[in-house]
Inverse folding.
């Protein structure tokens, strides 16, 4: 292609600075909106994924076959220590901890309240992403942690002694006294609302479940491989007779939300493309009609129509690329500023209520979001706008390509 | 040895269809134009001057008759072949300068050379012709930074830079004052006499006619008169680059 074709196309952008500027602005704002939306959505998805695959569900869970539907006390994994040890042999497993859940009554004074005992492997759950992650010191036998909403409801305070009464797995009456070690706020909403968290040994003793648990929560180093890990673990002899499922099977509603978030990104991309098409096509059409005489002159001098077409195509792509470049710069600037401090989405509610988190399906989803962009976000906008720019140029380029020199010069 | 015939027109007609009305712009024009001619096509408005010039320049095709330009039958050429003929053999000077506004004077001159595939040499050639036409210092200015006379000289430089055998000029002095028109015409006379470039003007400007060695008069689309003559004004070769 002739150098002057590029030169003329480039300099033509400056002929009507206001018009070109408006087209660039439309595309830049669109690209910025795409990146900002994708960044916020990805930050939100990160929150959800971390909450699910971290403290709440883990990447893979092991249960007795009907436990997920019935959640009956006697639907247990019998050889839980042996099963957990076998699971930890898989190189992709970060950790594996057993849990027990049982409905009880808790009585700090005279009155009793409904609650749920959550027995945990304190060592495992104290690690990063665990239910007790961030706890000052390990949880010891005889001590319990109380969800902050339950504590508020029953008026419990750290150091206070509470009575826990329930039914053992063998049908006997289960009761004991525990000291409240601390009041916790957990990503698991069920813990906040009703949870009395105690060590696995205490829970097994209280509920008469020696060597037993209701589930084993497995976390992996490769979060994208949860399904494959579940399939591998299901083959272990130590897990024979159990159900092994990955997190997507456990909370399909959340998976649906995550998929919807992706669609929001595509929806914004479509809006960006519409803005790009409208901006570029309008600019090029006006520019083409204004320059009919000039195109006629170029044809008269011996230019081939294809050269005029190339010129218009190049102008279109230049407008698109410049707009995307400006929008990308703004988008990454937005990410740079907000990724460190985060965005408090709760404060956008404007209700004045002290909302910090959003609970859904037993999950506590933080509303403080840290936008995160991926390389593919800007590339997607770049490629899409470039293609769109070329599409937007087809009409004006076709008009210009069919010009006869004399007719065009009379225009 | 007689000069070579560059343009041979035989009984050519041109009819424009403007909606329901057919306008007959040329009604059987026959004319031969020879190499080295410095020729004017004159006549009142609507007499067919520009139409004839456009046909010779392969910008349009005659409705009937035979038109041969540089031994090529124009009516038999495709759109692309006509573009190639214009590019390689014909230079154009238009009434309204018609420079590319976003290119500098030098880039405008280089433009046609680039289309012709001239490589690194084109910049030197552009500078040389601009120098010759007294525009060397203005080479890097854009058209809007030049006066009308300067722009038209750039247009002439562009038309002759590729050394075409034929230069067609449609009312080249229409927008110029007397002084600039005279400078421009002297330049073209000099190029004609020094390089043998054939110039054909469509004009009704007596200033242009004063320089012509041949004047073809069109009336109502027909050749009314075709006369050879001595130019009324001599050209001072040494003065062509000075705005005297």
């Amino acid at each position: 292609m002739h150098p002057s074709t590029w030169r003329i196309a480039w300099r033509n952008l400056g002929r009507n600075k206001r018009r070109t500027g408006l087209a660039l602005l439309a595309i830049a704002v669109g690209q910025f909106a795409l990146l900002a939306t994708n960044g916020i959505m990805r930050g939100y998805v990160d929150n959800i994924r971390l909450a699910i695959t971290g403290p709440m569900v883990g990447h893979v869970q092991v249960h007795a076959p009907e436990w997920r539907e019935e959640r009956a006390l006697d639907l247990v994994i019998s050889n839980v220590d042996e099963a957990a040890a076998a699971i930890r042999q898989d190189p992709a497993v970060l950790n594996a901890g057993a849990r027990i859940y049982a409905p009880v009554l808790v009585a700090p004074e005279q009155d009793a309240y409904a609650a749920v005992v959550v027995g945990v492997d304190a060592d495992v759950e104290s690690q990063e992403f665990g239910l007790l992650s961030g706890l000052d010191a390990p949880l010891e036998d005889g001590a319990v942690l109380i969800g902050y909403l339950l504590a508020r409801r029953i008026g419990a305070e750290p150091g206070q002694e509470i009575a826990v009464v329930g039914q053992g797995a063998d049908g006997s009456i289960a009761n004991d006294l525990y000291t409240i070690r601390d009041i916790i706020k957990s990503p698991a909403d069920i813990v906040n609302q009703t949870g009395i968290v105690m060590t696995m040994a205490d829970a097994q003793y209280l509920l008469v479940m020696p060597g037993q648990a209701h589930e084993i929560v497995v976390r992996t180093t490769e979060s994208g491989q949860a399904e494959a890990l579940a399939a591998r673990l299901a083959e272990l002899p130590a897990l024979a007779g159990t159900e092994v499922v990955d997190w997507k099977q456990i909370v399909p509603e959340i998976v649906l939300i995550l998929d919807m978030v992706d669609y929001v990104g595509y929806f914004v991309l479509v809006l960006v493309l519409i803005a790009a098409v409208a901006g570029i096509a309008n600019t090029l059409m006006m520019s083409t009609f204004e320059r009919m005489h000039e195109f006629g002159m170029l044809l008269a001098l011996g230019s081939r129509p294809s050269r005029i077409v190339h010129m218009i195509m190049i102008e279109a792509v230049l407008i698109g690329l410049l707009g995307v470049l400006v929008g990308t710069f703004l988008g990454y600037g937005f990410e740079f500023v907000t990724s460190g401090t985060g965005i408090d989405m709760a404060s956008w509610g404007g209700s004045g209520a002290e909302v910090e988190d959003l609970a859904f399906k037993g999950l506590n989803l933080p509303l403080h979001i840290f936008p995160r962009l991926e390389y593919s976000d800007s590339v997607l906008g770049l490629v899409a706008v470039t293609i769109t720019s070329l599409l937007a140029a087809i009409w004006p380029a076709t008009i210009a390509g069919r010009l006869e020199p004399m007719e065009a010069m009379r225009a | 040895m007689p000069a070579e015939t560059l343009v041979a027109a035989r009984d050519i007609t041109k009819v424009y269809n403007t909606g329901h009305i057919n306008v007959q712009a040329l009604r059987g024009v026959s004319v031969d134009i020879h190499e080295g001619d410095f020729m004017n096509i004159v006549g009142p408005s609507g007499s067919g001057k520009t139409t004839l010039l456009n046909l010779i320049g392969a910008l349009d095709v005659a409705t009937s008759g035979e038109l041969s330009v540089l031994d090529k039958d124009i009516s038999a050429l495709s759109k692309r072949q006509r573009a190639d003929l214009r590019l390689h053999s014909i230079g154009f000077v238009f009434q309204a300068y018609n420079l590319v506004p976003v290119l500098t004077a030098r880039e405008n001159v280089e433009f046609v050379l680039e289309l012709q595939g001239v490589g690194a040499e084109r910049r030197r050639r552009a500078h040389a012709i601009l120098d010759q036409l007294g525009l060397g210092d203005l080479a890097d200015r854009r058209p809007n930074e030049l006066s009308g006379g300067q722009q038209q000289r750039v247009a002439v430089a562009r038309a002759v830079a590729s050394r075409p055998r034929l230069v067609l000029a449609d009312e080249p002095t229409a927008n110029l004052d007397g002084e600039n028109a005279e400078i421009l015409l002297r330049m073209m006379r000099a190029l004609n006499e020094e390089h043998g470039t054939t110039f054909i003007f469509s004009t009704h400007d007596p200033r242009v006619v004063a320089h012509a060695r041949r004047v073809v008069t069109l009336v109502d689309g027909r050749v009314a008169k075709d006369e050879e003559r001595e130019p009324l004004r001599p050209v001072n070769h040494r003065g062509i680059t000075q705005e005297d």
Notes: The interface with chain A takes residues 54, 57, 59-60, 80, 83-84, 86-88, 92, 94, 98, 100-103, 107, 110-112, 114-116, 158 of chain B (CB under 8 Å).
